[in-house]
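Bench log. Compound arrived from synthesis this morning; before running ITC I wanted a structural hypothesis for how pyridoxal-5'-phosphate sits in the protein. Inputs:
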Amino acid sequence: MPGIDDALMGQVRSRFAQVDECPQQGPRVFFENAGGALTLNSVVKTSTDYAAIPDNQGRDNVGSHELVRVINKAKDDMRVFMNAVGGQFFVGESGTELLFRLIMNACLGTARGGKVLGSTLEHPATRSACDRWAAIAGQEHVLIKHDDATGTVTADGYAEKVTSDTVVATILHTSPVTGMSVDVAACAKAIRAKAPECIIIVDGIQHAAHGGMDLEKYDVDGYVISPYKVFSRHGYGVAWISDRLNAVPHNNLINGPEDNWEMGTRDTGSYATLSDVVDYFEWLGDAVGGGSTRREKFDAAAEAIKAQETVLTDAMIHGTGNLRGLKDLEAVSIIGGVDNPAREGLVSMTVNGVASADVVKRLNEEGIRTHLRKADHYSGNILDPLNLDGCIRVSMCHYNSVQEVAKFLAVMNETYG
Ligand SMILES: Cc1ncc(COP(=O)(O)O)c(C=O)c1O
């Protein structure tokens, strides 16, 4: 399927801030989207507008009523965008904080002696939370080993390890180190086949910018995203929880509403920017000719995003114009293999005989921003089994162009070819 054409790409890029320029560095190609995607201009404006408002929610005045309306609208928008039936959306301090909180409550709210199932693919946000709270709740944390060759984990892996006493399970939707996605619906199905009541919590933080989320299909109980990684801004995370997870005991104010999971006064502006993000996906779906309902447009946007990201990663790996791709540079190795259908806009690689930090530095000098992943507490789970002390992560989004990939490949060919 073709990616986003030049005319539409111009419109797409005009909607984002700092798309080809960094205020510190000047012109640059942004291939650090897994560290934080570009921000929509609409989000920048909304954040400024709401920062000026002194009113609080829950008062009987027109200013306050408007804030509550905006929050409710954002929740409704997210519900359609992520196809969530039942349950509720709420915001927290960050994606990590929300994952910890959901997992803590899930462990504490389920049977002692049960099992908490996850995988070695996971980001430490879920893995550390399970490690800590399973122990405190008197449960055993069981880990499925991910496949080093493909950089992902499968439903078969879950099917093999799940037991009828699995009370909590975690799934990483997309790895921020390998860039490979996981079939969440299939994993959840495998878990529910043996443990139908299991509380399943998904880390969707790396996946969200790729669109196409469908919570009803996934049949899970918690799904967490970090808005700065999906075209909004820093400072908060968003969670959806099912009715089942909602009912689990959790921190709350005495005599307060039982289903409140939010801790204190919310930033209305943060909610308002979620509506901006949803509007953007809807606009993109419309622009690529996608259907009449909002869901159809979100699906069309996700398809267009996938197609464009595939064009970009194919160009990066196989080459474009007369530039050789990464697979043809002898010194370069690509994590997760050359042709991997699970890849979501991200290529992690190493250059034989060159420290990954030096490659990132060299690319930076040429105005191409990538990121060094070290075998530390964030990425050691992926890099240690591969005997790597680091890798270069090149993470793209649908607003990146083949011309930008060509700039990257020109430097790679010239320096390491
Ligand atoms: C998959 C995944 N989970 C969790 C996190 C942590 O997110 P945050 O720093 O927004 O809490 C990240 C951050 O990159 C991530 O990619």
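What the model suggests: The chain is about 40% helix and 15% strand. The chain has two domains: 6-40+302-416, 45-279.
ITC booked for Thursday regardless.
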